[in-house]
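Thread: Modeling a multi-component assembly for a lab meeting

Hi all, long-time lurker, first post. My supervisor asked me to bring a structural picture of a complex we are working on to next week's group meeting, and I have zero experience with this. I have the sequence lines for every component (319 residues in total). Could someone generate the structure of the whole assembly? Inputs are pasted exactly as I received them:
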Amino acid sequence: MRVLITGAAGFLGSHLADRFLRDGHAVVGLDNFVTGHADNIAHLIGRKGFEFIRHNISTYTFVAGPLDGVLHFASPASPVDYLEHPIPTLKVGALGTHNALGLAKAKGARFFLASTSEVYGDPLVHPQTERYWGNVNPIGPRGVYDEAKRFAEAMTMAYHRYHGMDTRIVRIFNTYGPRMRPRDGRVVSNFIVQALCGEPLTVYGDGSQTRSFCFVEDEIEGIFRLFMGGDSEPTNVGNPDEYTVRQLAEVVIEVTGSRSAIEYRPLPEDDPKVRRPDITRARTMLGWEPRVPLRDGVVRTVEYFRALVGTDRMRPRAA
Ligand code: NAD
Ligand code: UDP
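Re: Modeling a multi-component assembly
Sure thing. I ran the full set together rather than chain by chain. Output:
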């Protein structure tokens, strides 16, 4: 197969490119580097089967040659990033998805959308099954991301129903691991970088809010199986082990051996209070489930960030 991955220089996109290449498929990676980094794909440049296009998917997109799959992963994904780029986030979810769907249609390719647990908003149903419609504030600061992804899902289903296209939608729950950008603002990267730099760990609110963290290797395997073998209905892919943010801070302090303190900061607006996937669908349809426990995944992520200590990439982001 030859597949296009948008957002290929990002955290998940680069691991997904590795996964396809590992099985002998060809990958065209596309990215405009708004939140990604060239380091994530440096090992792929010049490798047989990998091509790279620097391009904004929210504008007209041409890709030469046949494609069997279009996997649309381009989008800022960290709350801090999408608050910094609200309009590009809305555009890549809406116009970018439309362009990626149009390209897949023209090529007769399967389309795969990277959606998110954020479509459930601040959920009133716990754990979240795919049948839950969500509790999203469209005009709050997170609305730019949540509504763009909800629109992207609606657009994908419309292409499936109206054009008879072969499509997939994955709802990804908080995923972490090597190649996250230091200082991207997400909780796992923030805590690990803060612990390694001897800075206080910034817990927002009282830290009692929960998330369910999936190690990247598990997430990518679920996504790959869904692409190969799933159906067109949205599918949760994540790790159902649920932790409070405070518990996560304790795990990071323990694993890094850091002497950093915990510092409490205000809770961002509309921050979901709980989040945990019901993965019954992925389990039964794909025979998939996550294997890496949080502590083991944190150990492997700490190794990655430790190697970046002292480099420019660890510098705090500009205020
Ligand atoms: P990331 O920021 O590391 O990667 C996103 C990539 O998309 C970056 O390389 C960025 O430069 C690129 N991009 C953004 N807009 C673009 C545009 N207009 N044209 C071309 N490239 C563009 O984030 P990630 O964690 O790898 O997320 C990848 C996808 O998975 C996103 O769609 C995100 O919404 C989704 N997702 C991720 C998580 C998670 O926990 N990591 C959870 C839910 C959903
Ligand atoms: N969070 C935190 N400290 C940080 C970054 C995030 O306490 O330095 C909290 C945030 O308020 C949220 C959770 O950690 O409750 C997960 O945040 P993240 O930005 O990783 O993603 P989200 O799941 O909110 O999209």
